[in-house]
């Protein structure tokens, strides 16, 4: 009797579990588009828009800087938008640097039908770099990408004109990302469900899991790299962050931020962030206003 009841329960639970996994796959890849509006007055910027090579449109805010002080592309994390990068933009613009904050494809006011975890979003990065080269010709360019923004940068086919890369809280592979997140939510029962989510990628997004391996692209990056991660990050643990840095080569920088989980690292430790990331950018973009005009 007990065995029959257990089998009946299992037979009922299986379709429920399958539906739950399908629902999670839909939620993870669904676009997160919303109205953003005009930039805050403190940025002294303007709303901009431009097209990608695939015909989509990218929306953002741009603020001009002082000539010769470089330009920085700021890229938000998954399910967020350009406003996540505003504090960084205000800091960098205060140093005289030009800044461009965009909504990655399928986020904010940018077009897109599915979140693809960096694969299709990389077209937005490429279009942004082309826009920056046209708007600020001759300026050295840096990219600061958080999570999805970092992965979208590394997965881009090329990074013309980029002189420095700051990659924050970036997953090494989509397999790692899903397993870590499922383990955080469901414990030991979570990681075995990762293949069920991965099998949905191609038919939901048109992207294969083997296309979402930023760690395999790290050695190909030609610009200097600074890799950041949180000491307590369970989405991208410190060991994975170190592996990313190691793949980028011996000259790549690393900062494991004490006490930080998978959070906004600038907000978590603003003074240390601006000291460390600021020093890296000054090395590769040249001095900002704070170091030349004070």
In brief:
By secondary structure, the protein is of the alpha/beta class. The protein has helices at 2-29, 86-94, 121-135, 148-154, 174-186, 194-198, 201-205, 238-248, 265-268, 270-285, 289-292; strands at residues 32-33, 46-51, 57-63, 71-75, 98-102, 107-108, 141-146, 162-168, 225-230, 253-257.
Content of β-strand: 15-25%
**Could you state the CATH homologous superfamily?**
Alpha/Beta hydrolase fold, catalytic domain
Written as H for each helix and E for each strand, in order along the chain, the element string is: HEEEEHEEHEHEHHHEHEHHH
* Strands in their spatial order, largest beta sheet: 2-3-5-4-7-8-9-10
**CATH 2nd-level architecture:** 3-Layer(aba) Sandwich
From the 3D structure, determine the CATH topology. Answer: Rossmann fold
| Rg (CA only) | 20 Å
Q: How far is the N terminus from the C terminus? A: 82 Å
What is the helix fraction of residues, given as a range?
A: 25-40%
Report the strand count: 10
The largest sheet, given as strand count, sense and whether it forms a barrel, is:
8 strands, mixed
Description:
- By secondary structure, the chain is of the alpha/beta class.
- It has one domain: Rossmann fold (3-Layer(aba) Sandwich), CATH 3.40.50.1820.
- The strands form two sheets. It has an eight-stranded mixed beta sheet with strand order 2-3-5-4-7-8-9-10, with helices on both faces. It has a two-stranded parallel ribbon with strand order 1-6.
- The termini are far apart.
């Amino acid at each position: 009797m007990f065995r029959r009841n257990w089998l009946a329960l299992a037979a009922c639970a299986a379709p429920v579990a399958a539906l739950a996994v399908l629902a999670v796959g839909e939620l993870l890849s669904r676009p997160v588009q919303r109205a953003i509006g005009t930039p805050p007055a403190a940025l002294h910027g303007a709303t901009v828009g431009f097209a990608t090579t695939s015909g989509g449109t990218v929306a953002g805010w741009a603020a001009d800087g002082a000539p010769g002080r470089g330009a920085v592309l700021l890229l938000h994390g998954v399910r967020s938008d350009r406003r996540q990068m505003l504090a960084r933009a205000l800091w960098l613009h205060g140093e005289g640097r030009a800044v461009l904050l965009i909504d990655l494809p399928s986020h904010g006011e940018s077009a897109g039908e599915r979140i693809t975890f960096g694969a299709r979003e990389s077209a937005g990065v490429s279009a942004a770099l082309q826009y920056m080269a046209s708007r600020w010709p001759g300026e050295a360019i840096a990219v600061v990408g958080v999570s999805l923004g970092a992965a979208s940068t590394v997965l881009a086919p090329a990074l013309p004109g980029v002189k420095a890369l700051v990659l924050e809280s970036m997953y090494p592979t989509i397999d790692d990302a899903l397993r870590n997140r499922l383990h955080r939510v469901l414990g030991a029962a979570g990681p075995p469900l990762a293949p069920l989510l991965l099998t949905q990628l191609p038919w939901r997004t048109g992207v294969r899991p083997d296309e979402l391996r930023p760690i395999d692209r790290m050695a190909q990056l030609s610009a200097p790299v600074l890799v950041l991660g949180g000491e307590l990050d369970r989405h991208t643990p410190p060991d994975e962050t170190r592996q990313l840095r190691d793949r980028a080569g011996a000259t790549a920088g690393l900062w494991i931020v004490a006490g930080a989980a998978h959070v906004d690292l600038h907000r978590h430790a603003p003074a240390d962030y601006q000291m460390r990331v600021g020093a890296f950018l000054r090395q590769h973009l040249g001095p900002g206003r704070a170091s030349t005009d004070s």
